[in-house]
Specification:
Length: about 300
């Protein structure tokens, strides 16, 4: 089965038959994903016979890879990177609980009584990082940029029905996806071109797109001209963690706006996912303290 897996991925892996393992799946996680560093630090510290490996998977092969991992009991748990959070959600749909189904994307795989299923730690990790950094739990008006898996998860945790925000706005180019998120999370959708007229009274803006990531490093989802219309009391939150300082955050700095990047979110969601993958064998604090040593 391992040889079959090797034929479906783009990177080399050090893995033997009957060896217990975890994995992060994406287009090219071997090129810098932090999950293997974080998870393996826990495995090494606790002397567990486990390791996490990156799997670079082309879109044509993702369903086949998920099928192999599902059947292979040596695959213990894992993480999902862009663009496979929604693909995996659909693959495991019948095994997901109602909360996860509301989000519409998963980023963590784990075994429940031997059966592979999934959860989403992006939203919980993002909000946990945000509240611990800015010491604020409630917001009047929030704009979430994007309509992909991360945006779905973050919006679900910010939903007005949970009391974290009174006015949740989803801004995206894709009306169908954006409107669906807004509907599920009791918010409103606006077209990307209408951001300018909606940011002058916000107190939190969260970038959940890939604009400004390493593959698009010189761009920002919000222009310097637009950001001057954002209140000085507002917070700019970019969930991207590579680079640590995105173009959006540089512009926010220039305009003296409180801002934070995605490194702490990445840590928090990894803590939650690893805890789940290990069936709660170690506390969140134990896992977090070990992972912090990697930073």
């Amino acid at each position: 089965m391992i040889d079959e897996l090797r034929n479906l991925i783009e990177n080399d892996i050090d893995l033997k038959d009957n060896e217990k393992f975890c994995a992060i799946l994406g287009l090219n996680p071997s090129k810098g994903a932090r999950s293997p560093l974080l998870w393996n630090a826990v495995f090494n510290k606790k002397s567990l016979p486990l390791k996490m490996i990156p799997l670079d998977v082309k879109q044509d092969n993702i369903d086949h890879v998920l099928t192999l991992l599902d059947k292979n009991q040596d695959f213990v748990a894992g993480a999902l990177a862009v663009p496979y959070k929604e693909v995996a959600f659909n693959f495991f749909l019948n095994r997901l609980d109602s909360t996860v189904k509301k989000i519409g994307a998963i980023n963590c795989l784990y075994r429940n009584n031997g059966q592979l299923t999934g959860i989403n730690t992006d939203g919980e990790g993002a909000i946990s990082a945000l509240t611990s950094e800015v010491h604020k739990k409630e917001f009047e008006k929030v704009i979430v940029l994007g309509s992909g898996g991360t945006a779905k998860a973050v919006a679900a945790y910010l939903s007005p029905e949970l009391g974290n925000v009174k006015n949740l706005v989803i801004a995206s180019r894709d009306k169908n996806k954006g409107s669906l998120i807004a509907e599920k999370c009791f918010g409103t959708w606006i077209d990307w071109h209408d951001i300018q007229s909606n940011i002058n009274d916000i107190d939190l803006l969260i970038n959940c797109t890939t604009i400004g990531s390493e593959s698009d490093i010189n761009n920002s989802p919000i222009s310097e001209k637009q950001i001057t219309n954002i209140p000085k009391s507002a917070i700019i939150y970019d969930v991207i963690y590579q680079p640590v300082k995105t173009r959006l955050l540089e512009i926010a700095d220039k305009n003296e706006l409180i801002n934070l990047g995605g490194l702490k979110m990445n840590l928090e969601q990894a803590v939650i996912a690893c805890h789940k993958g290990l069936n709660g064998s170690y506390s969140f604090d134990e896992i977090r303290n070990i992972m912090r040593e990697v930073e």
